[in-house]
Amino acid sequence: MSKAKCTNCGDVIESRHQYEFVMCTCYVEASDKVIAFEKTHGKRDDEFWKFVKENSSGFFLDGGEVYTRYGGNFSHIEWISTDILERLEGLDDE
């Protein structure tokens, strides 16, 4: 199980099953802003990536107990489930 709290919006999100993709509220809102900007701006140039960086908040989880995939603004992740913490600590040893 992958479970974490967003320190930006306060949502606690949990991916319990393989392919269960979950997002916190502020990640959804940030994604919507970026999609709208891309549609009006029309290209992925420096201005686009600057907008993405300035509007990046929240995160997503996926994978449940099978694997853990996460992305977004890593500074907003406060891990709750212990199994993901053990897996992340193991990566430091490699």
Explain the overall architecture.
The protein has 94 residues and is α+β, with helices and mostly antiparallel strands. It has one domain. The protein contains three helices and six strands; from the N terminus they run βββααβββα. It has a three-stranded antiparallel sheet. Strands 3-4-5 form a three-stranded antiparallel sheet. The chain is elongated and about 40 Å long. The two termini are 23 Å apart. The mean pLDDT is 86.
Mean of residue pLDDT?
86
Task: Give the overall shape, derived from the CA principal axes.
Answer: elongated
The total of beta strands comes to: 6
- Name the beta content range: 15-25%
Structural class based on helices, strands and sheet pairing: alpha+beta
Distance between the termini: 23 Å
Count structural domains.
1
Q: Radius of gyration from the CA trace?
A: 15 Å
Biggest sheet overview: 3 strands, antiparallel
Query: Number of helix segments?
Result: 3
| N to C succession of SSEs | EEEHHEEEH
Helix content: 40-55%
Widest β-sheet, arrangement of strands: 2-1-6
- Report the uncertain regions: none
